[in-house]
Structures are given as structure tokens and as C-alpha cells.
Amino acid sequence: MSKMVELMERLQLPEGFSESLLEGVRFFKSLQPILRTPLLYDPGICILTQGSKIGYLGNQSFQYDASNYLVISVAIPFECETFASPDNPLLGLYIDVDMPLLHDLIAQVGHRLDFVVEERNRALPRGIGPAPMDEDMVDATVRLLGSLQSETETRVLADGLMREILYRVLCGPQAPVLHALASHSGSFARVARALKLIHRDYAGKLDVERLAQEAHMSTSAFHRAFKEITSDSPMQYLKKFRLNKARDLMVQEEAKAYIAADKVGYESVSQFSREFKRYFGRNPAEIIRGLRNIPAFGSIQPVA
């Protein structure tokens, strides 16, 4: 048993998501496999200490497990398959990206990070991707988990350990996505502004022209950059985002399908039902019955 697993087992976590003693860090646990299903993560760092997941984005797939953490720089709908069992439960933690801290770290080691980004990725970075858990990252995670066992140690030590973990990520192969996220210029930052508009006004009447205007880009350049970062066209992304939000409303708030459809911007309930079934593989009533019987592993939290 690894030290990370030992520390997580000491916490006696319930199945599903649970809060830690530190704001911005959540734990998760699953005792059962979860078939490939669409989900949506907020920007953050996902570290598995046991079990594994396979993510599917566009025509690519990637695995994250105890040897590979996942970095999400922008909220991207993707599909995920979870491998777990009662004898080998999935255990992990999800760390939000603290933007003021990210800016501070980049300001302190900016020249080095500029070199890393330039050398590793000259194209637009994808908004999500895995990175290896090297010895430094494992050591920092073990010490963070150790501090989260105690309220006193959390108050005294956890903030510094969160800073170290984010620094380790900035030194790894996914540095370009966080560096681009923190930038106030460039195509990635411009697309990120359009994504914020979607997350804020997803129920409104949005189109490519409005989103491109928000990004201060031509429609064609915006469409191309958006798909390079998210693997979806702007309208495909908007549809997936709305459907994920509708699922959350139905599962977490027990909203009826027609009410959820209206709240996320659908004018036609029949169109909503068709697109919901095409995306999730089941109609709203079926997926609600299934998800209410197991802990939710869809959206990490509402996307801001």
C-alpha cells in the first residue's frame, strides 16, 4: 500500500465527493466501476492515489491513475470511464486552480516557465491533459494529505503545500496549459474569455459571432482556436455544457426534465430530450433513476 493510499484511508471517506479541511481541495471515492459517460470538470488538478480513469476527448484518449495526474485549465466536457471495485476503490483528490497563486508563481519564475512553454508546446495547448507523478509531485502530495489529517496542520502547513503542488505542475509537461490560462493575451486567453461568457450566460441566446466578439477575434480564427483547445466547435461545446448543467439540475435538485430544459436555454422539450439521449445514451428519466442510486461523479462543482 502506498503512503498516499494509507493517508486517504485514514480519512474514512464516504463514497462520492467530500470536502477536505482546506477550501479548494475535495476528495473522491468510488467502490464500483463507472462506464464511459460524459462529464464536466472545473479547472483543477486531479490526483488519483488508487484506481484509474480513461478520459476521451475528441478522437484522443488518455489515462490518469496513481502514476499520472490530470490538469484541467478550462472547463471541458469530455467522456470518462472509471475502473474501481470494493477491493480496489478509486481514491483521489481534486485541487482547484487558485488564479492569484498561479499569477504569483509565474511572476516569480516567469522566465523559466516561458522557456518551458516555448520548448514543449509551440501550438495552442489542449485545455486538458495528463502528466507523470514524479518523485517531487508524489512527495508534495503525501505531505499535503498528511497535513489534511489535522485542523491545526491544515491551518499551518496546507497553504504552503498547495503552493508547492501548483509549482510542481508548472514545472511539468502540462505547464503550457496553466501558463496560457494565466496569460491575458494570445488565442488561449481570448478563447478562455468566451468560455467564461458561456459559463455565465449558457441559458441565453449565444452564437459564434457573439462569442468571437467577446474573444476579440474574427469568427473563423475564433472557431479554429476554440476547437483546437476544446476539441469541440463553439456550438457543440455550448450544447454539451447545457446538457451537463441540465443533468446536474435533475439529479442534484430533482428538477423535472422540462424545467431543467428551460433553465439551460432550450425552447423545445422534445429537442432537449433527443439531444440528451444522443449525448448521454439514455433519456432523462433513465439517467436520473440510475444516477440517484450511485454517488455523482459528473460535474466537480458549478463552473464559475
List keywords for this structure.
304 residues, alpha+beta, Jelly Rolls, Arc Repressor Mutant, subunit A, 3 domains, 6-stranded antiparallel sheet, 4-stranded antiparallel sheet, 13 helices, 10 strands, 20% strand, globular, disordered C terminus
Structural class: alpha+beta
CATH topology of the largest domain: Jelly Rolls
Secondary structure tally, helices: 13
CATH domain class name of the largest domain: Mainly Beta
> Radius of gyration over alpha carbons?
19 Å
Shape: globular
> Largest sheet, if any?
6 strands, antiparallel
Report the uncertain regions. 294-298, 300-304
CATH architecture of the largest domain: Sandwich
* Average of per-residue pLDDT values: 87
Please write the string of helix (H) and strand (E) elements.
Answer: HEEEEEEEEEHHEHHHHHHHHHH
Q: Termini distance?
A: 37 Å
**Portion in strands:** 15-25%
Tally of individual domains: 3
How many E-type strands? 10
**How helical, in percent, are the residues?**
40-55%
How would you write the strand order of the largest sheet?
1-2-9-4-7-10
Topology, element by element:
Layout: H1 3-10, E1 16-19, E2 25-30, E3 34-41, E4 44-50, E5 52-57, E6 60-65, E7 68-72, E8 76-83, E9 90-96, H2 99-108, H3 110-120, E10 128-132, H4 135-147, H5 151-170, H6 175-182, H7 186-201, H8 208-215, H9 219-230, H10 234-252, H11 257-263, H12 269-280, H13 284-291
Antiparallel strand pairs: 1-2, 2-9, 3-8, 4-7, 4-9, 5-6, 5-8, 7-10
Helix pairs in contact: 1-4, 2-5, 4-5, 7-8, 8-9, 10-11
